[in-house]
What we know:
Elements: H1 14-20, E1 23-28, E2 31-37, H2 38-42, H3 48-51, E3 57-68, E4 73-78, E5 81-86, E6 95-101, E7 105-108, E8 119-130, E9 135-142, E10 145-152, H4 153-158, E11 166-171, E12 177-178
Antiparallel strand pairs: 1-2, 3-4, 3-6, 4-5, 6-12, 7-11, 8-9, 8-11, 9-10
Amino acid sequence: DTSGVPILYVTHALDEVDRLADTLVLIASGQVTAAGPVMAMSARTDLPVLATRRDAGVVLPCVVEAHDQSRGLTRLGFDGGALLVPLRSATIGTRLRLRLRARDVTVATIRPVGISSHNILPATIEAIGPAGPHEAFVAMRVGPSPLLARLTRDAVVTLALAPGADVFALVKSTVFDHG
């Protein structure tokens, strides 16, 4: 909204929240259960209404930095890094929101080589928590920005992932949701 007038928007559709809201207030049984900026709230795995979403993930505010017509890619910068996504028609400098689903993020303990993914982000693990009977959420930071991966518990054990570990987060460029 460019008018500067605050808008109260009530919805059960969290994809609308991702696209439209700056601040999220969760209410259950008439009580506020959590509130904060959408970017921070989207990464919280302690809130069942957010963590149980099949598309649980984070919302990153980004800026269109460049287009590479020959490769069919657009570079989106965010606080802490940049991502290559399929070519967009947005003007350089355009601000947009990018939803990164936890299920579309993988983790490596060493920088991968010889792979098709352009998006390899140095990250630090902040926390690991349950995401179902056989899965875990791995909450990370890429610079100051949150990132979330949904991995099997076996992957967490096999890779010996733990809070404080430096890892590489991989995101395929074809899975981006733009808001």
